[in-house]
Amino acid sequence: MNVLNFIHAFFSDSSHWHGYDGIPARVWEHIQYSLEALGYAALIGLPVGLVTGHYGRGGNTLALIATAGRALPSFGLLVLMFIWLGFGLLPVMIPLVILAVPPILVTTYEALRSVDPSPVDAARGMGMTESRILFQVELPVALPLILSGLRSAAIQIVSTATIAAYVSLGGLGRYIIDGLYQKNYEKVVGGATLVAAMALVTLGIFWAVARLTVSPGVRRS
Amino acid sequence: MIRIDSVTKRYPDGTVAVDRLSLEIPDRSITVFVGPSGCGKTTTLRMINRMVEPSEGRILLDGADIHAQPVNTLRRSMGYVIQNAGLFQHRTIVDNIATVPRLLGWSKQKARARAAELMERVGLDTALAKRYPYQLSGGQQQRVGVARALAADPPVLLMDEPFSAVDPVVRKGLQDELLRIQDELGKTIVFVTHDIDEAIKLGTMVAVMRTGGHLAQYAPPAELLTAPADEFVEDFLGADRGIRRLSFFPSTGLELQRAPIVAIDADAGRLGARASADAPYLLVTDLDGRPLGWGEPQDLTAGSIDPARLLSYGRPFMPGRDSLRAALDGSVLSPTGWAVAVDGEGRAVGVVSQQVIGAAIRTAHAEGRDDARVGG
């Protein structure tokens, strides 16, 4: 039996489409975990990246934090947090946020550093305040790169959020972990397929957001 | 009036960019700072809108220290044009130009209407309004830069090497446009360049600066060409000082001769009558009076003058509009040694010999008639 047969069997079984362990419920849980983690990561990464990028300071510190963040194994961190904090969503959020902050933070910083300095000089010379320069001159130009940082963070979160199932939470990880435990490979493959599909949908969403928010004057490059 | 009062800019590493600079920038005129790189000209300009703060000394705008008002209020009252235009690539042309009016709180509609008006003023097709900067050529982008600086009608315009990055032909167009706009608007323009020819062409006053932030000479361009203060200024001015200075002498007073001009359909009698010892050549024109070329009287046969066999008439000049330099150039370019004067429609109104131009130059020198600026 090959993978496609597994996929077909998983998705055509009508019992997989309802109930607390049904696909809609698990997908919805997965979306919630992912959005929450991405939200926190953006809340930390974007402001810090924007401010440090605008003033051009702290690049080395950021690189250090990013490397450290990337070096931490998400799964190990999850187990550690679970032991520390016990059952709940928090032990899951911490590793996911730590995973997602570096790409957001570093790309935002780099995106702002790579903005052509002459419009910024012109804007300052025309009497724009620093916050206007940041939001009206630098941000619109840096936006494609910033969005790409958010996108890779989002995709990493979507695929890593499966670890929530290890600490008895829901999400698409449930299928993979339960399937492995039950030796039900149809379930494992089905869960993995759903995660991959969600990652692709995430890509599509970011593409659409970029189309809508990036000025045509910037987009051509 | 902007007064720079013994201003020094010293950087933390000890480099002195500007050294005790004092000068007055007159209202409603173009003051050009010119000098080699590292002479402090850009630093000086940037101190006027406080992009750089002086270490010592002060700068007064209409008698008040520029620190008397909030920095962004000061900057919004001064147009700022930089080398690569520095346009906002995410905004359309019209919104780029509307930047400062929007900062000053104008409504979007009013700011855009003003922007469209300025596009015309700087010679941009208003069809470009909805384009983005990347869709424009370098010269067009620089025009947008000038329009953006003028948008809120500031009394002062600071221009930092605005035309350095465009090719010579476009640059000349932009310079002419700036002079035309200045004739209409009468701004106080501070202009930085490393190009001495640009300085002489545009400046009402020219400040020549030398490395280390010293002012070498501050004078009107004609005076600079006549009497360079020292060897540095003289070297910087380069060759042909005398010829270039002729740009400042009008060609109005030249005594033009009408006699040697004949139309292409002239009869034999007329051809004979017009030639004289004084004017050994005849200028043949078409039936509308536009010059075709020079010919010797004995080579011209009534009724069968071949325009292709005439001698070149060089480049004609327009008395009144062009300078003695243009007249002299016209006479040097023509193999006959005579320059052709034309009117606005390009019709020959007279001819003048090198001898007469030479005499006019001597008279102009004697009278010191170099204060009037003329083109060409």
Helix/strand/pairing category of chain A: mainly alpha
Taken from the alpha-carbon principal axes, the silhouette of chain B is globular
Indicate the radius of gyration of chain A in whole angstroms.
21 Å
CATH topology of the largest domain in chain B: Rossmann fold
Main β-sheet description of chain A = none
How much helical structure, as a percent, in the residues of chain A? over 70%
Explain what you see.
The complex is a heterodimer of chains A (221) and B (376). Chain A has 221 residues and is mostly helical. Chain A has ten helices and no strands. Chain A has a single domain, classed as MetI-like (MetI-like fold). Chain B is α/β, with parallel strands linked by helices and 376 residues long. Chain B folds into two domains: 246 residues, 3-Layer(aba) Sandwich (Rossmann fold); 107 residues, CBS-domain (Roll), CATH 3.10.580. Chain B contains 14 helices and 15 strands. In chain B, the strands form four sheets. Chain B has a six-stranded mixed sheet, sandwiched between helices. In chain B, strands 2-1-4-5 form a four-stranded antiparallel sheet, with helices on one face. A three-stranded mixed sheet of chain B has the order 11-12-13, covered by helices on one side. In chain B, helix 5 packs across helix 6 and helix 13 runs antiparallel to helix 14. The two termini of chain B are 29 Å apart. At the A-B interface, helix 6, helix 7 and helix 10 of A face helix 2, helix 4 and helix 6 of B.
Question: Which tags fit this structure?
Answer:
heterodimer; A: 221 residues; mainly alpha; 10 helices; B: 376 residues; alpha/beta; Rossmann fold; CBS-domain; 2 domains; 6-stranded mixed β-sheet; disordered C terminus
